[in-house]
Sequence to fold (135 residues):
Amino acid sequence: MKKWTKAVLAVAMSASSLSVSAEPTELDHVVTVVNEGVVLSSDIEALKKTVALNAKADTLPPEDVLEQQILDQLIIEELQLQEAQRLGIRIDDTRLEQAIAASPKKKKCRFKPFVVNLRKTASLGQITASKSAEK
Fold:
C-alpha cells in the first residue's frame, strides 16, 4: 500500500508542477527617455484615466491626439523636475500646503478650481522666480 501511495503522490506532484508554470507578462514599459528619466506607459494610462474622469466625453480630443498631449505634458514635467533638481530647488510639504491654502484667499476663489488652475499654469520659471526672490 505504501508503494502505491508514494507513486500516486509522485504523479500528482509532477502534474501540479506542470500546471504552475506561467507565461511571462509585461508589467510596464518605457515609452520615452527624457535625459536621465523615463516616461512609462503606466504614467500615460494613469493620466488618461484622470483626464477621462474629470472631463466630459464630448470635449475630449481623439484618442491618439489625447495620448500625444499627455506624453508631451509628462515630458515637460520630467524636464522641469530634472531642472529643479539640477538647480537644487526643493520645497517642503509644509511650505507647499501653506502656499496652496493661502492663494485662493488672495484671489478670492474656491480651493478645488484653484488647484486645477494651478496645476495647469504652474511652471518651473515661476518656481525659480519665487526662489530667487526669497534670496
Notes: The helical segments are 2-20, 41-54, 63-87, 93-107, 111-121, 124-134. Confidence is low (pLDDT under 50) at residues 128-135. The chain has six helices and two strands.
